[in-house]
Amino acid sequence: IGQVQDEGCCHSGYAIAPTSAMTDRSCIASNGTRNGIFSAYHALSCCPDCASPAALPCSGGDPLKIWEFWVVDGIASGDCLPYSLESSCNAQGCVEKCWAGMSVTVADTVVKGGRFYKVSSNLAYIQKEIFEHGPVQTSIQMFGDFVSFVGSDVYKHSTGGLLGQQHIKLIGWGHDDGLDLDYWIAINSFGEKWGDNGSFKIVSGSDHLGVETNVIAGLPKF
């Protein structure tokens, strides 16, 4: 649940955050019997409708489309197609063979999801969703101070211009007694040198930067 990925110079959080949540939820729903990782690389390179623009998957995309792709087409194993774009800004086209020397094809490792849905922006609803089924994916407005954020303080935007959207995974919540402030515990995809070893806390309860408006979740298929 706390695994941190590094999207590198490929703006692929729209694929990393959903596939990470899918991975966690599948493991939880199966009581640990499904412990494979869904491939963010497969999602961003093989879903033509997910990227925006479609020909440039490293320019960003729509996480809701990634969830739909999981349910309709399925997503391959991360063991078959590991994410390897930390130092590259270009994703290859959709490939049929696994990279990791596996004897199976990409298609052999594809698993479909059961369903996906938007979660109410109500704080209690989101907490209930996380408590019952595991981490959820959401999207926030990304400003300059977010990109440079380091430390364990609760993040609240104060400086820097708007740079776009960033897609993250919410894994829990808490309360800062010193600040009397509620927060979400989240996982970003900027690597472990960012934030608090790749995770961070963000103000909750006020839809700060859209964190509660844009929550998406899904359930695996059995």
TrEMBL record:
Top-level taxon of the source organism: Eukaryota
Molecular function as annotated in GO: cysteine-type peptidase activity
SMART domains for the chain: Pept_C1 (SM00645)
GO biological process, one term: proteolysis
Gene3D superfamilies xref list: Cysteine proteinases
Peptidase C1A papain C-terminal domain mapped to chain residues: 2-219
InterPro entries noted in UniProt: Papain-like_cys_pep_sf (IPR038765), Peptidase_C1A (IPR013128), Peptidase_C1A_C (IPR000668)
Entry similarity comment: Belongs to the peptidase C1 family.
Protein name: Cathepsin B
Species annotation: Culex pipiens (House mosquito)
Taxonomy of the source species: Eukaryota, Metazoa, Ecdysozoa, Arthropoda, Hexapoda
